[in-house]
Amino acid sequence: MSDRETRCNASGQFMDRGRMNQNGVVQPLLTDLYQITMAYAYWKSGKTDDHSVFDLFFRSNPFHGEFTIFAGLDECLRFLESFHYSESDIEYLRRTLPEGTENEFFDYLGDLTAKDVTLHAIDEGTVAFPRVPIIKVEGPLIIAQLLETTLLTLVNYASLMATNAARYRMVAGKHVNLLEFGLRRAQGPDGGLSASKYSYTGGFDGTSNVLAGKLFNIPVKGTHAHAYITSFSGIEELKARLLKHKLTAGVTGDLLELAIKYRQKLSTVLNVSMEESSEGELAAMVSYAIAFPDGFMALVDTYDVKSPAKSTNSNNITAKTVTKAVISKSDAKNLSDKRSTDINETELPITTTSVAGINMTNGWTVHPNGNIDNINNAVSTSMENDTNKNDQNINNNNAQPHDSKYHACMSRLSQRSLSNLCKKTEKSFRSGLLNFCAVALALNDLGYQAVGIRIDSGDLAYLSCLARETFERVAERFKVQWFNKLTIVASNDINEETILSLNEQGHKIDCFGIGTHLVTCQRQPALGCVYKLVEINGQPRIKLSQDVEKVTMPGHKNAYRLYSSDGHALIDLLQKVSETPPEVGQKVLCRHPFQESKRAYVIPSRVEPLYKIYWQNGKITQKLPTLELVREKVQKSLKTLRNDHKRTLNPTPYKVSVSDNLYNFIHDLWLQNAPIGELS
């Protein structure tokens, strides 16, 4: 059994084997079949000694942006380090390749390693741009070809993920924490681990993924789910109520008793009726606080409990409404049919994410006529917008007898001010916020400080402002200054646009927990890196296409980043390896690769060679940075770009150019290889 096989566990996943760990499934057979069949054809053709150069690059930046973060180099180098076909690999290939494949070829594969390969690359964590190769591979044609698919799969998602994370970091700002919560939504366990690793590279502060924390030394963070809150029905279920004082030995307090005492006081301070507070929620929070008194962070949007005094219509949905419960279309119809046909604005039920009495449960809007629509996760702060949307939805559905009354109600509600809307929204937040503050004050009496709250639904901007105002009021009333600094975490299907909108609304959120949109890169699920042959035995090769974007730039090239006098990156310059590098203070002619009229002289204040040799003679030739250093490199590299290159809306394209020599070389080769048509 080979050394590689002994390093893999039964499932072939990440193994503890060094600085940032190598994924056990990354091995020579993690490739496309045609790479191996091409290798056999090369071998049959006597091309084993042919020397090749391949460029790995991408053609356009992701997410409608103008930059990409290069990531995945570490895994590529670990792959080269361990490249070897095991005995079981060879046996499998003997059974898989067509009959007639010569045995000598399998012997050749069995002896194949990456020792004759040289790999040039830009530093991991560096900002990269289209057409500039981020990796160059030179070496024997067969082994260089066999590396293609594996290198692409290691770089494509890593760079896409790091770029996505970097964009989230930019829109959130440096003072807001970002946590990756996407494991359950990721494309399988390997995708989940990679997402955790490269979101941290791109600027996130931690992950909920425990295995990623162990393997990559990423801070692990988390709270609890709605299930924990709903698992308690009342305070009588509490098995443990006592908690030792943190600072005073021998002193033990009844945390539940203290919490109930503070809840009564807070009821007056916060103007929240005791009847609007869930006993089961209080029990769950007390239980969790006893388990984690120094790390108490509570989910506060599980229940909406409506005061019985306001439940004048017995058919309305009152008492405990579990926000996260899944509601089916048939259930929605039944609930709707039970509602009174005599609708007035005081009888409309309020739930955790509700606007104007329209129940929003798990993303569904229930209309009085029994139809439902899917909606976005956030409650709109514009009453007029919600009125228009609901009017349109009702018009599109089958009319019910009470539609006119519903329209009349909506018309009255649309005249309300934003403050009245906020008052209704506030009701959906009361139980959790009241119970959290009560438990946090109880913890304070025993020498502990709570961490904060998590909001997972509703109008995140408004609710975060309400929570911050509440904490400040409690801090002043009870003389507990650390209450002012309680952390507010927001989750619930957050994407880049959500954060931008929240910024405009003046939110008070300290931390975002982001999952689906981050790890799946929903705006663009693939980066599209390619791996192209550009030179064979010293002869340049060019791929021609009617689509100019797909025409490759031939030959072995070097890349330089030229900086302006203000210190920002100005342009990337590609030139032949035989050319003299550009010099500081010397005029350089930079040309567009394919448009003759686009050219400019540049006098750089700094010249940065982009490539280093990372692999040569069978070993890694550079000291590889830790994940923390790569993470720092990302932010330093982004700072070299002008803000207009990084803005989310209509960013300015960054310029990539070629030298005059390379420009002429490309176009001469193009003309030599392009077929000449014939007219008749």
Q: What does this protein structure show overall?
A:
This is Nicotinate phosphoribosyltransferase. GO terms for molecular function: nicotinate phosphoribosyltransferase activity; transferase activity. Residues 29-156 form the Nicotinate phosphoribosyltransferase N-terminal domain. The chain has 680 residues and is an alpha+beta fold. 38% of the residues lie in helices and 17% in strands. The protein has 23 helices and 29 strands. Strand 17 (452-455), helix 18 (460-478) and strand 18 (487-490) form a beta-alpha-beta unit. The chain is elongated, with a radius of gyration of 31 Å. The relative contact order is 0.13. The model is unreliable at 1-20, 306-402 and 408-419 (pLDDT under 50).
